[in-house]
């Protein structure tokens, strides 16, 4: 590694610096109290050229004949300053250093302009790229440990739901026919598929998590919040970062980023991230561990500045994932209301089968169908920012794709119940957003824009029975079920297609009635259209003309086809009042009427008594969201933040995912719950105690209920319920908790640090620890006592040395107390009683090296 770093340094030095006429750059370094700093280190970034200040804080350093360049000014106990020099100054430059461990006032771009987060009348949490890297939060699933209002549930990348305040995506299997309620943006580009949240971040500058509806600020309507992620931008000053992590289970993660000028008006940036790890679950059938990590991602950017007022950025990215995973482990067996011979334990006894372990946290499986979760995600974008008048006109054009290549063992056993379960999908999207943001008059500022997205999704799926299917599907005592080869190789080929288009006009004003009191109205007009087709055809199994045997086969899989198309328009909006009582207190109140577009089912429908698809379920009504929120952002004393938010969200026609008992409905189907309500409170705090100690924390209380849901699916233990001899299909679950909604969740972290030097570099030695906890939550659309995930808490820590330039190192550990916990529970196909768990990672630990030039 040392040789590689030396070679890289040599190459960069040769490429970047040449011997030529050198002029001196002179300056003075002081504190923010105007006190000269003696012996401050002044470095030309990307080189080994440096000097120190004298007793008057003065310095002089040769430019080495190359401009532009960046000066790094370092002094123990103060934040490092960076200053770009484009020409030799005629007089000494003044550089002011800010004392470390003063609370940094984070700026955000959530309202399409740069402003302090404490001044924004929105509940927003900010995680910088450096904070995410330090905490090992290399994807959204890790970010939820820092922002407890975020929930992410993923049984595999396709079946991923991201929620904020327990709202956003239906809990359970993903259906492409509806839109997510949480927007996911990277550098202004909307990512339509939630699978993007399972991949590694690449060279991230900042992550903003906005809570609550944001339809008047963002191109795509977002009913429960948005992730606004910005990447590090190309720089005209040469720089590079290299990072390498190694841990147990052969964890290996490498990151690299290089930036610099490619011409007088063109700069570039190239970034890479790769993660590998051995499996955390042992497959005793194959003799090797599964649930590995295998991610690689690239991102390239070109910045062109044709004029002082215009920036043009072209970006391209490609991320691949090739793990052996995401396998789930049988977590238990629920007795159902079916006959004794249809209970899971009786079924496997007849087949002379035993589970490899009755304890899920033995982390043993014997799955006989390979687990495969290959996905490719990428695209290109063109962003143009140009200053016009008192604002900025922005155009963002993008094309993206997502390819999904899976294989699953959805019976969760070593039996050949489902020999194949795979639904490869290809999704493409084109988006265009144009908006103007800026000062319109002396009292009014705002943002206005138009947005368009057109996306297509095609799934060509296969589900095929094995030699044990007959026993799991058996619904009578007839000996015909055991007919040799009746179901073996019997399956369905699925062709599901959807095209979804959406167009919107949106805007929000900020009217300063006084310097302290502002009114912020926002409006949005949306048009959405969806066309879908679904077709499945049966194949294989025993070839017979016997009507009785054909009827048995049809009870497992049958042909089905339907088309649906729908469109809808909607006016929505919001009104916010904000009052800045003082420089330390900013209060606001918001009402928002929001909207999630109409949905369509593209994964099969339940059948009626005649065996025909219930096409009345093909279209899912749009959600109507009514949101109320009040908040106060405060700085109660020096270097502190304490923010409180209270919210209430009512949703009519809540879109929820229902898992059918029929095997043929292999992805679940969508339905509407009449009314849902979520209310709660959030607390965010950050304190700098002194120059050595910082503390930060967040807590959320959430009460999510089905106010009215009379046609909910039966919970697992009530499968097969009959009343007066008639089998019951639905249940009234009004008043019960929403799935995925923990009543309490929180995070708490702190850092102890001191000044130090490491290999001649000035920096800080530190010890940091953080914890994340949440209370129990339901893991089923209809509350089931067997599918309740118990509350848990995990703790992480890290010890190391960090510097803004040169070598940094840290030793880290996650889930230090090796807590066994589930992230999700889900029933097996056919609801025979067994259910599986998505396991949280056990204890992991390792070391990270970072070298910055």
Automatic annotation (TrEMBL):
Domain TonB-dependent receptor-like beta-barrel per the UniProt entry, residue ranges: 369-816
Localization terms from the record: Cell outer membrane
Signal peptide feature range: 1-22
Pfam families: CarbopepD_reg_2, Plug, TonB_dep_Rec_b-barrel
InterPro entries (alphabetical): Beta-barrel_TonB (IPR000531), Beta-barrel_TonB_sf (IPR036942), CarboxyPept-like_regulatory (IPR008969), Plug_dom (IPR012910), TonB-dep_rcpt-like (IPR039426)
Topology within the bilayer: Multi-pass membrane protein
Domain annotation TonB-dependent receptor plug: ranges: 117-226
Superkingdom to which the source organism belongs: Bacteria
Keywords, in A-Z order: Cell outer membrane, Ion transport, Iron, Iron transport, Membrane, Receptor, Signal, TonB box, Transmembrane, Transmembrane beta strand, Transport
Family named by the database record: Belongs to the TonB-dependent receptor family.
Protein name according to UniProt: TonB-dependent receptor
Organism annotation: Flavobacterium ginsenosidimutans
């Amino acid at each position: 590694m040392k040789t590689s770093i030396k070679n890289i340094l040599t190459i960069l030095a040769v490429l970047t610096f040449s011997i030529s006429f050198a002029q001196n750059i002179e300056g003075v370094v002081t504190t923010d109290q105007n006190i000269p700093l003696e012996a401050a280190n002044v470095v030309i970034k990307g080189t080994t050229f440096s000097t120190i200040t004298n007793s008057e804080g003065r310095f002089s350093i040769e430019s080495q004949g190359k401009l532009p360049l960046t000066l790094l000014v370092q002094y123990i106990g103060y934040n490092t300053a960076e200053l770009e020099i484009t020409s030799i100054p005629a007089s000494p430059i003044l550089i002011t250093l800010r004392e470390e461990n003063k609370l940094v006032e984070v700026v955000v771009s959530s309202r399409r302009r740069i402003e302090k987060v404490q001044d924004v009348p929105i509940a927003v949490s900010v995680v910088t790229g450096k904070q995410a890297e330090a905490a090992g939060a290399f994807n959204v699933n890790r970010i939820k440990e820092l922002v407890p209002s975020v929930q992410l549930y993923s049984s595999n990348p396709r079946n991923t739901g991201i929620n904020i305040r327990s709202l956003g995506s239906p809990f359970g299997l993903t259906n492409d026919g509806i839109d997510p309620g949480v927007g996911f943006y990277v550098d202004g580009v909307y990512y339509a598929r939630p699978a993007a949240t399972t991949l590694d971040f690449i060279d991230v500058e900042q992550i903003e998590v906005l809570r609550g509806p944001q339809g008047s600020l963002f191109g795509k309507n977002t009913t429960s919040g948005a992730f606004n992620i910005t990447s590090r931008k190309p720089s005209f000053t040469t720089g590079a970062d290299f990072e390498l992590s190694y841990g147990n289970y052969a964890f290996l993660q490498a990151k690299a980023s290089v930036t610099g000028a490619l011409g007088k008006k063109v700069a570039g940036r190239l970034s890479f991230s790769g993660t590998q790890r051995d499996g955390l679950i042992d497959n005793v059938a194959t003799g090797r561990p599964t649930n590995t990590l295998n991610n690689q991602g690239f991102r390239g950017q070109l910045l062109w500045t044709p004029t002082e007022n215009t920036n043009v950025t072209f970006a391209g990215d490609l991320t691949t994932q090739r793990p052996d995973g995401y396998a789930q482990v049988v977590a238990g067996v629920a007795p159902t209301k079916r006959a004794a011979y249809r209970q899971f334990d009786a079924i496997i006894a007849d087949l002379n089968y035993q589970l490899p372990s009755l304890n899920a946290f033995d982390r043993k499986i014997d799955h006989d169908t390979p687990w495969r979760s290959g996905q490719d995600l990428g695209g290109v974008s063109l962003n143009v920012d140009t200053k016009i008048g008192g604002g900025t006109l922005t155009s963002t054009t993008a094309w993206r794709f997502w390819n999904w290549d899976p294989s699953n063992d959805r019976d969760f056993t070593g039996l050949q119940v489902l020999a194949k379960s795979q639904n490869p999908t290809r999704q493409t999207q084109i988006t265009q957003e144009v908006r103007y943001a800026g000062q319109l008059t002396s009292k009014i500022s705002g943002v206005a824009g138009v947005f368009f997205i057109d996306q297509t999704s095609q799934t060509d799926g296969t589900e095929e029975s094995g030699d044990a299917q007959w026993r799991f599907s058996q619904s009578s005592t007839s000996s015909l079920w055991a007919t040799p080869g009746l179901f073996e190789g019997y399956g369905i080929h699925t062709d599901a297609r959807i095209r979804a288009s959406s167009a919107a006009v949106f805007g929000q004003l900020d009217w300063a009635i006084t310097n302290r009191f502002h009114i912020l109205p926002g409006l949005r007009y949306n048009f959405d259209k969806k066309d879908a087709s679904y077709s499945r055809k049966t194949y294989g199994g025993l070839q017979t003309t016997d009507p009785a045997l054909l009827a048995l086969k049809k009870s497992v899989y049958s042909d089905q086809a339907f088309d649906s198309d729908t469109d809808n328009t909607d006016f929505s909006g919001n009104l916010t009042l904000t009052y800045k009582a003082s420089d330390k207190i900013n209060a606001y109140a918001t009402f928002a009427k929001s909207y999630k577009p109409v949905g369509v089912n593209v994964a099969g429908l339940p059948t009626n008594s005649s065996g025909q698809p219930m096409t009345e379920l093909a279209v899912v009504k749009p959600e109507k969201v009514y949101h109320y929120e009040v908040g106060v952002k405060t700085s109660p004393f020096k270097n502190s933040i304490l923010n409180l938010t209270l919210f209430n969200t009512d949703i009519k026609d809540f879109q929820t995912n229902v898992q059918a008992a029929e095997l043929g409905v292999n992805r679940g189907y969508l339905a509407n719950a009449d009314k849902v309500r979520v209310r709660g409170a959030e607390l965010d705090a950050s304190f700098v105690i002194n120059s050595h100690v910082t503390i930060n924390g967040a807590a959320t209380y959430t009460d999510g209920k089905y106010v009215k849901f009379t046609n909910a699916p039966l919970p697992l233990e009530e499968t097969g319920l009959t009343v007066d001899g008639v089998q019951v299909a639905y249940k009234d679950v009004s008043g019960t908790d929403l799935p995925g909604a923990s009543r309490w969740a929180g995070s708490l972290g702190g850092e102890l640090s001191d000044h130090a030097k490491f290999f001649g570099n000035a920096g800080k030695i530190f010890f940091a620890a953080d914890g994340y906890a949440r209370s129990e939550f339901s893991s089923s659309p209809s509350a089931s006592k067997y599918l309740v995930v118990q509350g848990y808490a995990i703790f992480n820590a890290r010890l190391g040395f960090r510097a803004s330039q040169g070598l940094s190192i840290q030793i880290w550990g996650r889930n230090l107390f090796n807590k066994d916990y589930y992230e999700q529970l889900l029933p097996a196909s056919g609801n025979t009683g067994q259910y599986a768990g998505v396991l949280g990672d056990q204890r992991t630990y390792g070391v990270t090296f970072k070298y910055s030039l």
